[in-house]
Amino acid sequence: MAPDIMPGTTLPDFELPDHTGVMRRLSLLQGHDPMIVTLNRGVYCPKDRQQLLELARFYPQLQVGFAQLVTITTDSLLLSNDLRLGVGAHWTFLHDEKRIVQHRLAIQEYTDPHNNPMIPHTFVLEPGLKIYKIYCGYWYWGRPSLADLHHDLRDITSRQRPDYKIDTPEMRQQWDSGDRHGFFPYGQSWHQVFARMAGAVDQYGRS
To answer: pTM, whole model, 2 decimals?
Structure first.
């Protein structure tokens, strides 16, 4: 891993084509939410497929918990869609045939010169692409379990959401005063909130 990529630093705001061929920035996909980013080998890897199947089962919890999920592979557009459809994923897949992420993060899997993939990693990000935790998944057991991700997102959310402890006298007083600044959706419209929950990326910027 590149020496400047560690918990507490900021993940580069990569811009890559998604599973429809449209360029997407990680910051747009994240918005103001916590986000999980998986860097995977691709369609040929059974470890990736198993991890993504688990995440497909977890994804409804991410939606109601207002957390985002993005997968990046070195597959082509066709293979990226094969993988996405094959695991029943409903989140954004980005493909990186040029190995931009691999080179920037210094995660070439040098033990596989035939496929030249990235060493699989899972990043858990706080808002602003701030790295909270990095899991190295070269071996399958290095990848986070759903319980690991649940704990990570609980900690991030408890620190990032001002209304996480809504039962305090201070929060009740703020609500009764008519001040909604510290309450979800924090000035966003419900249209924006539901667009993100639905993965409607092209509506993210609309009010």
So the answer is: 0.94
